[in-house]
Write a structure and sequence with these properties.
By secondary structure, this protein is mainly α. The protein contains eleven helices and three strands; from the N terminus they run E-H-H-H-E-H-H-H-E-H-H-H-H-H. Strands 2-1-3 form a three-stranded mixed beta sheet. Helix 1 packs antiparallel against helix 2, helix 2 runs antiparallel to helix 4 and helix 4 runs parallel beside helix 8. The longest helix has 34 residues. It starts with 8 loop residues before the first strand and ends with a helix. The mean pLDDT is 86.
């Protein structure tokens, strides 16, 4: 394979060629991205400043919220600015950087969701040993492992496309640099690379999703032996996790489990895992969690009192 880079930049077609639709989308995505940053930052701030939220579950939630901010920031700002731009372009190096960080934070989120499922399994199925098993050192190691796993996943993905020859054309039918639309522009037979992408990204998503569903099934079976109040509280917590898992993994599996195939609906599906899920994360976790709502209320009261002084 010859490393030819006649292409120095890529042109995005964006979400829609219609100018009116682009203006409407600009307002919608500007609102969504602002809500993503503020909502997830509020969760991070609330967890780090509230003594009542010192359990591992909230520590993992704050880490997830931080990752959501980083993850959405790899695509949303560029998408928003391009909606008002006539020429939607990105340099070759910029495309590689966006691709790397997209899969870095996305992979980290996958591993974090798996860690959160394990935390719920220990808390519900082995409550007596929960404090011992999920101590601070273990939690730190699990989060660090999630970040390392995300890096390894992303590094493997970027290696598959970094040395591909791009001789032209340079128009990507998408709103960001993603693997499958990018491979269609390579002047090289990418069949084997397509299979490796499925093996890395698609299999990771499917296996992780299967493990998560299996863990929550075990939790549901265990809940049959608990009191009605215990079942209600556990189901409320697990329900939030399962909702986020389905919203994130569903679109990812749809996109990355199809080698050599891109569909017109892919851009809409990509919006779900790059924008909608990070937007819904603080809504789902805060509105369905009484402790989180109380802590946010206390934080708001403390802030008002400080402003009065």
């Amino acid at each position: 394979m010859t490393n030819i880079h006649n292409v120095t930049e890529f042109i995005f077609l964006g979400l829609s060629p219609n100018q009116e639709v682009q203006r409407v989308c600009f307002l919608i995505f500007l609102f969504l991205y602002t809500a993503i940053v503020l909502g997830n930052f509020l969760i991070v701030l609330t967890v780090t400043t509230s003594r009542s939220l010192g359990s591992p579950m909230y520590f993992f939630l704050s880490c997830l919220s931080f990752v959501e901010i980083c993850y959405s920031s790899t695509t949303a700002p560029k998408l928003i600015s391009d909606l008002l731009a006539e020429r939607k372009a990105m340099s070759w190096w910029g495309c590689m950087a966006q691709l790397f960080f997209l899969h870095f934070f996305g992979g980290t989120e996958i591993f974090l969701l798996t860690v959160m499922a394990y935390d719920r399994y220990v808390a519900i199925c082995k409550p007596l040993s929960y404090a011992t098993v999920m101590n601070r050192q273990v939690c730190a190691v699990l989060v660090g492992t999630a970040w390392v796993g995300g890096f390894v996943h992303s590094f493997a993905q970027i290696l598959l496309v970094f040395h591909l020859p791009f001789c032209g054309p340079n128009v990507i039918n998408h709103y960001f640099c993603d693997l499958l639309p990018l491979l269609k522009l390579a002047c090289f037979d990418t069949f084997l690379i397509d299979l490796l992408i499925v093996a890395n990204g698609g299999t990771l998503s499917v296996v992780s999703f299967g493990v998560l569903l299996a863990s929550y099934m075990v939790i549901l079976l265990h809940l049959r032996t608990q009191s009605s109040e215990g079942r209600r509280k556990a189901l409320s917590t697990c329900g939030s996790h399962v909702t986020v898992v389905i919203l994130f993994f569903g679109p990812c599996i749809f996109i990355y489990l199809r080698p050599s195939t891109t569909l017109p609906i892919d851009k809409v599906v990509a919006v779900f895992y790059t924008v909608i899920t990070p937007f819904l994360n603080p809504v789902i976790y805060s509105l369905r969690n009484a402790e989180m709502k109380k802590a946010m209320k206390r934080l708001w009261i403390r802030t008002l009192r400080l402003n009065e002084k």
